[in-house]
Amino acid sequence: MILYTVLDLEEVLEGFEEAPQPTLELSVGGVFVEAEPLGSFQARVVRVLSTDPRHFLEPHCQPGAIIQGVIV
Fold this sequence. Notes:
- There is one protein chain.
- The termini are far apart.
- By secondary structure, the protein is mainly beta.
- The longest helix is centred in the first third of the chain and has 4 residues, at 9-12.
- Helices cover 6% and strands 33% of the residues.
- It has a domain at 22-68.
């Protein structure tokens, strides 16, 4: 594979060796999302897993939204 970029190789591979954060797949109001647990029954939405374009406009499931009442 060839990668054409103006960035240095160190910048492209930055964080590559770090372990990824654990995530959960949750249903929030009928929309499946991937979220990272924050503790104290909260999680932050990382990405929307639904294929329905309308779900990406819902404020409660946009990336960065905090979900309350999550039990890990």
